[in-house]
Design a protein that fits this description.
Largest sheet: none
Order of helices and strands: HHHHHHHHHHHH
Oligomer: single chain
CATH superfamily of the largest domain: Tetratricopeptide repeat domain
Distance between the termini: 34 Å
Radius of gyration: 26 Å
CATH topology of the largest domain: Serine Threonine Protein Phosphatase 5, Tetratricopeptide repeat
Helix content: over 70%
Length: 243
């Protein structure tokens, strides 16, 4: 608990590195217990802020009485300072409110893609063409990656991996309809571990148009119920999908 408290305090005081901040924010999305600790921290801190705010009000009241007896020019300068402080307080409140807003399905998907799908692991037992496609994907040469993956989807021995990587390639360039087709084909394959349903839900969340989030929630529930690939992430995400 003490370690968590130090981490949370360091986050809000700006003591973390950029990488540590990203890790903190990702943990808020995936670790329910930690998210509750953050919420408790904010609640306590807000309580302290409320107490300090009351003290500030009393100080401002005394300051106002003092200003009433001073020359007008000095009053104008001081009230400008007060107005500046008030504006700063409003911005702080807006910032807290934005932080407490639950993440949208699209933001959850974007974070997952950025954290987990920017690069693909090389499979040493795979065909040369498949490895070449993975290398092109990692170099962000998505058109080349598609050229490598697409022909391999028609070969039984490479089709499962090729469909997965081709779908991820289309997802990376926001060709959502093509990505969904690939993940549908992948889902229909009798594999021991099949990520097709999970990646389809991820794609729908990333697009978030029309009934996409509703469909994504249904798929995530199916993934959870059947303990499919991505079930842990599905449990963390589904509570943020309201449709």
């Amino acid at each position: 608990m003490n370690n968590s408290l130090n981490l949370i305090d360091n986050y809000f005081t700006g003591a973390l590195t950029d990488e540590e901040r990203k890790g903190f924010e990702q943990r808020c999305l995936t670790d329910g217990a930690f998210a509750n600790e953050v919420a408790s921290y904010i609640s306590v801190r807000d309580g302290l802020n409320a107490h300090l705010q009351q003290q500030k009000k009393e100080e401002f009241a005394r300051l106002y009485e003092q200003l009433s007896a001073t020359p007008k020019p000095a009053k104008i300068v001081t009230f400008k300072r007060i107005a500046f402080l008030a504006a700063a307080c409003i911005l702080l409140i807006i910032g807290w409110f934005a932080f407490l807003q639950p993440p949208t399905p699209q933001k959850i998907a974007d974070k997952y893609i950025a954290s987990n799908l920017n690069t693909l692991g090389l499979n040493m037992g795979s065909s040369d063409s498949l490895q070449a496609g993975i290398a092109a994907y990692n170099a962000k040469s998505y058109e080349k990656a598609e050229d490598f993956f697409a022909p391999l989807t028609f070969k039984p021995e490479t089709a499962p991996e090729a469909l997965k990587y081709l779908g991820l390639t289309h997802l990376a360039v926001k060709q959502y309809e093509e990505a969904l087709k690939n993940f549908d084909h992948l889902s229909a394959m009798p594999l021991y571990t099949n990520p097709g349903q999970f990646y389809k839900a991820l794609t729908l969340m990333a697009r978030s148009q029309g009934s996409d989030t509703k469909q994504a929630k249904e798929i995530l529930q199916h993934v959870i119920n059947n303990n499919l690939y991505g079930s842990q992430e599905a449990r963390n995400w589904i509570k943020y999908i309201k449709n």
